[in-house]
Amino acid sequence: MSPQPDPVNRTLEQFRAYLECLTFITIDPRLRRRFGFSDLIQKTLVEAWHTLGRIEALEPEAQKRWLRRMLVHNLLEQIDKEKAALFEDWGKFRDATKAWLDLMGKLQPEVTKKPKAKEQYYEAYYSYVFCLYKYAQGLDDPKKKTENMTRAGKAIAKLEETQADFGGVGMKEKYMQLLDKEPPLKKEYLAAKAAGAKAVNANPK
Fold first, then answer.
1. Distance CA 1, CA 21 (A)
2. Which of 32, 62, 103, 120 is most exposed by smallest CB count within 10 Å?
3. DSSP secondary-structure letter at 109?
4. How far apart are CA 158 and CA 2, in angstroms?
5. Domain residues for 65?
6. Is 187 in the same domain as 103?
7. What is the 8-class DSSP label of residue 163?
8. Binning pLDDT at 50, 70 and 90, where does residue 202 land?
9. Residue range 109-135, pLDDT digits in tens
């Protein structure tokens, strides 16, 4: 006789069945294929596990509403990421820069609470910097080109000041590779870093 699942796993499997049914019924098949909804369902289940006590205290219909809100939130987040990535792939770097920045704003409140949100935030940060730099490269106005190039360099220097690992495993190497590949961006980054060091030395604690 096979062992029976413990109550927590049994509850989570019930939630999974509901989320899979909800996804199948309410979400366009084209979106299901594009976004990999098994990952979204798994992410929602992990979040449900972290708040399991609160969810179990609710009535069944309230539990479903709670799960539905969590799934929709994760779906909208994924759509925002897909939109930004598409703009980037199409070379629409101005739109991509704004889209990545918007996504960062939505993820930022959860960075210190959820490891996955932190990972997604700093991935979006890298994409923001890259697209801002590429946008600057394509500008004809010398003043605007310089301003946006400087913003991109400062963004990397600011990140390094607050995150020694540049936001996560492998991220520092990723930035260093980008800087080595793009000398104009590296120049702005080094200038911003030098300015920051000078300001610290001028105002010691």
1. 29
2. 62
3. G
4. 55
5. 1-75
6. yes
7. -
8. low
9. 989 888 888 999 999 999 999 999 999
